[in-house]
Backbone:
């Protein structure tokens, strides 16, 4: 089935629908006009640019360019994950970058090589689009994962020290915090997966079906994407914690105070 | 100077937190079998002394020896297996009491132990709390529970930070006597409770003045 293209003039007509929110906003004095125009403008410009960019990307379909763009996407995701945690960028960038890259690339290459019948694993359509899908989702998980792990460790420092004094190794002492963080990070993904198809019809599928694909094919893609998302999320969350803890803990197994962005008061009682 | 029966030796130790000096040139020695009571007003650094030996904080300068070896990132892990520590907040965590025993006994360092808490729990008046949540226990119950765990670890060095503060008079005596009567045990006790001083075997270190005191009757 061929997807009918939407002529630009028709797309412009779609913008007429915005008259309704505009009227509602001014009628009830919602004060939404400015943010509405701002957001609509940004959305249009950003999507327009990325549309043109992806067009070229698909046209060239050069493995190096595709890998380069995926690397940029990973870096942006890493910046965003760290900015939402309380860790310092300079200390945590490399470990988080390593974790995101490993988790995303493993899953993408596995799917592209073994599952999707595609000629090259570096094909732009699959490498970039699928990679972005996985990144976006593991990003959310990682924000929860890193924050929970380090915040709990900091708030709970007396209990952590008590565990160390019981004779625990560093990994034994950190294990309860790791478990809690990974569970929390995975919760939303697992919950949405369990209701998928009934409560949520994921955006990816809507796009593919509207784009003209057979729903049966769209669902197959959705299934493999969900498997990929869960795998890359859990892998990257665990890896991020394991790799960042190497720089965030000192040789005594104590959380370094200088790894946090804002200076934290010394909590140890005298 | 390292003497053969010296267990813990501080030499010229400086320690400060956020620019505030807690210890300056502290030198002191604790011998095996000593029962040392650390006294002095709150905040003068008594707990930090224990934290330094356990490697929870690092000194600005000076050296700390445990059993003749310097406390550093390498051997601190062994020291933590030799010392039973109860912190002043009794930070035992949450969940059922039984889980705490299970967690402690499942650590690799404690795999050789026979972890049977019942007799000790009866001795310290802790009946029927095994399935209660740690957060539901009273302060006194948690202190005694922490004491029970510390004894079950089968170690002979004890760092007890205010472990009797929430107990009533009889239990204070019972806990203090329990530790002070064991001749082989080395105990470093931070406490404002006079019961710890009612024993001829204790040595008192005044942490404010950093000097040993003759034991004064309470």
Residues:
């Amino acid at each position: 089935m061929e997807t009918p293209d939407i002529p630009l003039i028709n797309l412009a007509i779609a913008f007429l629908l915005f008259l309704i929110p505009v009227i509602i906003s001014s009628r009830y004095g919602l004060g939404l006009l400015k943010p509405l125009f701002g957001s609509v403008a940004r959305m249009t410009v950003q999507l327009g640019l990325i549309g043109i960019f992806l067009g070229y990307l698909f046209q060239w379909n050069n493995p190096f360019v595709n890998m380069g763009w995926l690397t940029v996407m990973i870096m942006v995701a890493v910046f965003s994950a760290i900015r939402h945690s309380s860790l310092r960028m300079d200390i945590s960038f490399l470990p988080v970058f390593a974790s995101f890259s490993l988790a995303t690339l493993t899953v993408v290459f596995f799917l592209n090589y073994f599952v999707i019948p595609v000629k090259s694993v570096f094909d732009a359509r699959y490498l970039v689009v699928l990679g972005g899908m996985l990144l976006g989702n593991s990003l959310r998980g990682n924000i929860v994962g890193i924050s929970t792990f380090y915040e709990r460790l900091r708030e709970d420092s007396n209990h952590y020290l008590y565990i160390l004094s019981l004779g625990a190794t560093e990994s034994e002492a950190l294990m309860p915090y790791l478990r809690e963080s990974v569970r929390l990070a995975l919760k939303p993904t697992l919950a949405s997966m369990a209701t998928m198809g009934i409560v949520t019809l994921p955006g990816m599928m809507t796009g593919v079906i509207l784009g003209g694909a057979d729903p049966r094919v769209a669902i197959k893609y959705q299934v493999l994407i969900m498997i990929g998302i869960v795998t890359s999320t859990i892998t990257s969350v665990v890896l991020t914690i394991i790799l960042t803890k190497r720089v965030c803990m000192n040789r005594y197994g104590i959380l370094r105070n200088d790894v946090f962005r804002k200076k934290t008061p010394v909590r140890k009682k005298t | 100077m390292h003497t053969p029966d010296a267990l813990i030796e501080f030499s010229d130790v400086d320690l400060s937190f956020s620019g505030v000096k807690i210890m300056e040139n502290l030198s002191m020695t604790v011998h095996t079998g000593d029962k040392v009571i650390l006294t002095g007003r709150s905040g003068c650094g008594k707990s930090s002394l224990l934290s330094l030996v356990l490697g929870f904080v690092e000194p600005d300068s000076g050296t700390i020896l445990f059993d003749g070896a310097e406390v550093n990132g390498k051997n601190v892990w062994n020291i933590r297996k030799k010392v039973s520590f109860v912190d002043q907040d009794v930070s035992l965590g949450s969940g059922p009491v039984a889980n705490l025993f299970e967690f402690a006994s499942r650590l690799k360092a404690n795999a050789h132990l026979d972890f049977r808490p019942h007799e000790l729990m009866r001795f310290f008046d802790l009946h029927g709390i095994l399935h209660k949540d740690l957060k539901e226990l009273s302060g006194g119950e948690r202190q005694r529970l922490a004491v029970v765990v510390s004894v079950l670890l089968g170690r002979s060095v004890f760092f007890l930070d205010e472990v009797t503060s929430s107990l009533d008079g009889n239990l204070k005596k019972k806990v203090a006597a329990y530790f002070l009567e064991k001749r082989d045990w080395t105990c470093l006790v931070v406490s404002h409770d006079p019961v710890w001083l009612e024993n001829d075997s204790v040595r008192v270190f005044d942490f404010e003045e950093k000097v040993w005191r003759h034991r004064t009757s309470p």
